[in-house]
Amino acid sequence: ERGRNLQTKSLHTSHIVLLRIKETREVDPDAYEQIQRSKVYVDEVQNYTQLEILLFFYLGGPNGLFLAGDPAQSVVEGTEFRFEEIRSCGHFVGSVLQKPKTVNVNFRSHSGILNCAGGVLDFMFTHFPGSAKQLKKDAGLFQGSRPGVLSGASINQLNILLSDKLKGAVILTHDDSARHWRRLLNDYKLVYGIREAKGLEFKTVIILDFFREIPPSLQKPWRELVLGRAAQDFERSCPQVGTLLKLLYTGVTRCIEKLFFVETRSSTAGDATMRWLTKKESHGGIAFATRNNINDVEAMSMTSDEFVSEGINNAELAQTAEDLSQAQLLLERAIWCFEQSENIELASKARIHSSSAAYNSGPSYSRRMTRRMQMIVL
Prior knowledge:
about 375 residues, alpha/beta, six-stranded parallel beta sheet, two-stranded parallel ribbon, 10 strands, globular, disordered N terminus
């Protein structure tokens, strides 16, 4: 509910700014030229509404925009992005846009992860052709290990794993479950909702109970999809599954090196997906993932430098947080990462700023937090 309220407030603000810019352009062209920018670069453009994209056009003009994004990762609630929407915004302001260019070389993830992500895209393009434009699948620069599947892992086993063999791994869950899992995992700091993690990247990722936590009404439809039994009108009858596919694809592609699908209990959707992931016959004789024993996972602990890097990433994210509680959560993650690297100085700085943040929640909070985060990074 809070997320929806923030989104509504953001759209209202964008609308007001857009109206004022449009009025200034008509009434005071000289003032309008002062707010224009020669170039406007926007990443993750699929997360923006048409209203916000139109604002980019007014700020940068038709020849001053560079927009990059992936329609298959359009997971922000209230948006259903297609690149055609950018063209319609350009038409509204009288601009002719260049033909979009596609990049199919993935510089983040290796082939083992990208093959799995490609399997998710196959479902999306086949059964939800209206949700994202079909593009060529990404190719990685390197070969790599396939994702691991861990079924029936207990909370205690996960806690042991995260304190030893997979120390520093990032947990991705449904956004509504992130706080719940953070508590169950002994306040483990690196638990993210998938929407929260969009645009980020992590060395080791555990996608936790994604399939078990699919709503009960969609458990059987998901099973029919992954087992190849979906009806021709599947997009019309089960549109919510398309959103779940985008979430899963976004979660998978956050990973750089090592990916695990972990399900703590059996479920209709989970059992079917584990079967699909590990079935060789469905993917040209090579399964997308391998079944693993939770006690045999090789140690994948992050190095000290990687913990520092992850801590700095969270500290920098805190400066753009939309509210105080989110900034404090990010700072807690940063503190934990600095502590794991035994970097006392950075941990101390982040701890001081986290402690004082609660006393600085006024109109100028964001400006003060920006200065403090810069102090941590420096």
